[in-house]
Amino acid sequence: MSKIRVLHYINQFFGGIGGEEKADIAPSLREGKVGPGMAIQGAFRNEAEIVATIICGDSYFNENLEKAQEEILQMVREISPDLFIAGPAFNAGRYGVACATIAAAVKEELGIPAITAMYEENPGVDLFRKQLEIVPTTNSAAGMRNAVKGLVPLALKLARGEELLGPEEEGYFPKGIRVNYFAEKRGSERAVDMLLKKIKGEEFKTEFPMPVFDRVDPAAPLTDLKSATIALVTSGGIVPKGNPDRIEASNASKYGAYSLEGFVDLTEDTHETAHGGYDPVYANRDADRVLPVDVLRKMEANGEIGKLHEMFYTTVGNGTAVASAKAYAADIGQKLLAAGVDAVILTST
Amino acid sequence: MRLELGVIHICDVQFGSTTSVKDGVLYVDADALAAHLKEHEERLVDVKVHLARPGESVRITPVKDVIEPRVKVDTEAQIFPGTVSKVLPVGSGRTHVLRGAAVVTTGKIVGFQEGIVDMCGPGADYTPFSQLNNVVLEFTLQDGLAAHDKEEALRFSGLRAAKFLAEPAKEMEPDEITAFETLSLIEGVKAYPDLPRVAYLQMLQSQGLLHDTYVYGVDAKQILPTLIHPTEIMDGAIISGNCVSACDKNTTYHHQNNPVVEDLFAKHGKELNFVGVIITNENVFLDDKIRSSDWSAKLAQYLSLDGIIISQEGFGNPDTDLILNCKKIEALGIPTVIITDEYAGTDGASQSLADADPAANAVVTGGNANEMVVLPKLDRVIGDVDVVHVIAGGSDKAIKEDGSLEVELQAITGATNELGFNKLSAKGY
Fold this sequence. Notes:
The complex is a heterodimer.
Chain A: E1 4-11, E2 28-31, H1 37-44, E3 48-56, H2 58-63, H3 65-79, E4 83-86, H4 93-110, E5 114-119, H5 123-128, E6 134-137, H6 144-160, H7 167-170, E7 178-182, H8 187-200, E8 229-234, E9 238-240, E10 256-259, E11 271-273, H9 281-285, H10 293-301, E12 307-314, H11 322-338, E13 343-347
Parallel strand pairs in A: 1-3, 1-4, 4-5, 5-6, 8-12, 8-13
Antiparallel strand pairs in A: 2-3, 9-11, 10-12
Chain B: E1 2-9, E2 12-15, E3 20-22, E4 25-28, H1 30-40, E5 44-52, E6 58-63, E7 65-67, E8 70-72, E9 93-99, E10 101-106, E11 115-118, E12 133-141, H2 147-166, E13 176-181, H3 185-191, E14 197-205, E15 211-215, E16 218-219, E17 226-228, H4 230-234, E18 238-242, H5 252-256, H6 259-267, E19 273-282, H7 286-302, E20 307-311, H8 317-331, E21 336-342, E22 363-368, E23 372-375, E24 380-383, E25 405-408, E26 424-428
Parallel strand pairs in B: 1-9, 2-4, 6-24, 10-12, 14-19, 14-20, 20-21, 21-22
Antiparallel strand pairs in B: 1-13, 3-4, 5-12, 6-11, 7-10, 8-9, 15-16, 15-18, 17-19, 23-25
Helix pairs in contact in B: 1-2, 7-8
């Protein structure tokens, strides 16, 4: 059997081109293996060969999502590999998103087996775990050896078209897909066996792990609205016109903090939305629809509230991983507490 | 309480001039059976008797109930007490069973939610009733009957038919006899001082028309959780009045052959002490759910259990009853295992249950009922295949041009049974 031909995708850092200052480079194609490709090639032994490597800047990919994907897919078409590997990306957020996005595109649009690897908290995992196999790694490149060890056997299986077992057996992030199968014993017997183990304190395995719902206790109500400082926080993507911090339209990698000083009413000349998950026309025409500055200014003038906090905090909720959203919220919460804010109005879309 | 179950194996069913059993073949006198049913049920206008055997190219739909022919040999009490027999206590003495045979009821009934039983092909793998020699009854009822009356007439007629067919077995010598015995609480403790005390909490569907279950003839909506001997269940003390989303509803056959009861008895006296069965309901009102789950937990504590298996019937709304039962009993320090099934979407990617709690850490699943299955066209249909357009699990696109069906497992009778009757399960990918 001839060797499996592999195309490898990495970013500017692992490609040896440079760090953040080179993150805006467009994709380029190199012959053979580069950087982490050495370790991957080593693990392939003689079964497969990295025939070429694509190197692309993380900023370039994430800020030119469609263009970058099309450029890279074109390179993949030219090489026409048997297998596409992206990363490992470890805990690099934008790199992880790029790896998972392009691997999913290669798999779905070109029908070529594709795989990537990254740390469990990398937003790329939650975004694409349902679409492709993502192998878990540690949070830094120090774990490269183990990452390759997990990645390579699964990648080869995919390339050979072999049927995969479950995520536990094969070592990839569960896709959260429930699939029926016929067990060896009937359900009642499995239940009796499970109960006896549970009674004896032995290890048992549930067939359906309960989803755990995250619940937040409501805060105590305000005692005096008239003296309260109220802040506005939104996941609806309202930003100053031009989106100065380039908050992403989907799966935001950051939040923004902007002053409301001097604004009584948001207009299409001053504000817009960065959100890519809803029809932006109405929010762009009047951003108060998502971030109700006009109403709060009136209440402030009428003495109904103490005052509107001078800063507002904003991000894009669209496709943003829960882990990222939690981190932004914790950060924003600390800043609001430090500023003496009494209450927050949270708006979505 | 001690019951002997005498099993007579049936490997074929044929029409005959008298109803009898000979060399493993059940002969059915169709005219006498139809006449018997009409004589006892004036709401029946017509009864057609069909036969469907394992492997035949036959599709039965809409299936309402499946019932195993059983007869009590030596007691005044008879099978199905409180419904088609006098309300006398069952569960002791000797019962003969025609194992391998069943009555299946069908016909244009009330709702639009009954199931499919295929006797061959991929659909047959999902329903246990494809393995039985079925006497299928297709009923026509008087015009103008209220829905509840139609349902009752069919329910009783199916039970009567099973009794009728089992009558010849009364005088026969069974192929095998197994005894099941439940000791009184004190005797049980003395007999098995070192074995864990295990009970079974069976949740009975009780949400309304075609969602009901009856205990000695009492609508389960109106019961408070109570104790019942497992052998009473074998004698038809609990019967089915429901078939909505047929995959996870218990037919009367499921109750008669409750697999949790069987598998607990199998380890009784060896690895555990099977103390007995608690039955509870799944009413739609929150007050009822709270009251019944409190009561079940009180009974579990009163029996001083070391463990309990809880089986659900249905999905969605009863998920709340399931989780309430589970967490209240776990809170008393009694380990639980729950048996349920899943509605994870046709792609398997959605959340499977409508309620959840960390206490439910030991779950057995009967599979994802939303998973799609293609059922090829079969030669003969008993009933009316057009109902597949409207039954739960079917759709207006379910019947293809070539006559095959594309449905969710939900449409197949007993496919994801929550008594753990089948081997089907699901795992995460």
